[in-house]
């Protein structure tokens, strides 16, 4: 199975700050990566797929990049509504596997 | 609008079988697959399995011996059955529509299942 390692486990950011979350795959996943946002008590929502494609309706301050085994999610200007837990997920091989999550809070 | 909603018992006895239903709207099960994912309280996400638009299935090998996913296209429902439940199976169970094969959209709100006597 492909292991997904996310970092950091948690971080705090000020309003307007740029935030970056990292995800590393245990093998090359050829940009087969998604990012999800999960707010407290809610289900995950797809933000980014194919490593860098923005899902419909997701604000443009979210962006994804990376290749091979290293990927990142960037929030260009932190907003209060961006608080939550962010998960990466590889979609290349089954079983689909997720990172352990990054908890993002407002400082 | 893609919508999915899980339903099923909130409490299951150890060693018994879990049966959940995912009722979908806004798309056809003959056009898209449905993923089942679970999330233990306060923990991460685990993909359980997928039923594809042609009715074929893929399962997480860690659960394959206990898990079965099926569907009724006329009722727009997908079913999950998992036997021999243990306390470590306590989790929120979620269904979502597959998107470009390996991703998930339109997640349901989930159903909390507690395995306890």
Walk me through the structure.
- The complex is a heterodimer of chains A (107) and B (117).
- Helices cover 0% and strands 50% of the residues of chain A.
- Chain A is an all-beta fold.
- In chain A, strands 2, 4, 5, 6, 9, 10 and 11 form a seven-stranded mixed sheet that branches.
- In chain A, strand 9 and strand 10 form a beta hairpin.
- By secondary structure, chain B is mostly beta strands.
- In chain B, strands 2, 4, 5, 6, 9, 10 and 11 form a seven-stranded mixed sheet that branches. A four-stranded antiparallel sheet of chain B has the order 1-3-8-7, with no helix packed on it.
- In chain B, a hairpin with a 6-residue loop joins strand 4 (34-39) and strand 5.
- Classes of the chains: A mainly beta (107), B mainly beta (117).
Number of helices of chain B: 0
Output the structural class of chain A.
mainly beta
The fraction of residues in strands of chain A falls at over 45%
Structural category of chain B: mainly beta
Shape of chain B: globular
**Portion in helices of chain A:** under 10%
- Helical content of chain B stands at under 10%
Largest interface: A-B, 24 and 23 residues
Shape of chain A: globular
Q: Mind telling me the C-alpha Rg of chain B?
A: 13 Å
Would you report the number of β strands of chain A?
A: 11
Secondary-structure element series of chain B: EEEEEEEEEEE
- Rg of chain A (CA only): 13 Å
Oligomer: heterodimer
What are the SSEs and their pairings?
The complex is a heterodimer of chains A (107) and B (117).
Chain A: E1 4-7, E2 10-13, E3 19-25, E4 33-38, E5 45-49, E6 53-54, E7 62-67, E8 70-75, E9 84-90, E10 97-98, E11 102-106
Chain B: E1 3-7, E2 11-12, E3 18-25, E4 34-39, E5 46-51, E6 57-59, E7 67-72, E8 77-82, E9 91-99, E10 103-105, E11 111-115
Parallel strand pairs in B: 2-11
Antiparallel strand pairs in B: 1-3, 3-8, 4-5, 4-9, 5-6, 7-8, 9-10, 9-11
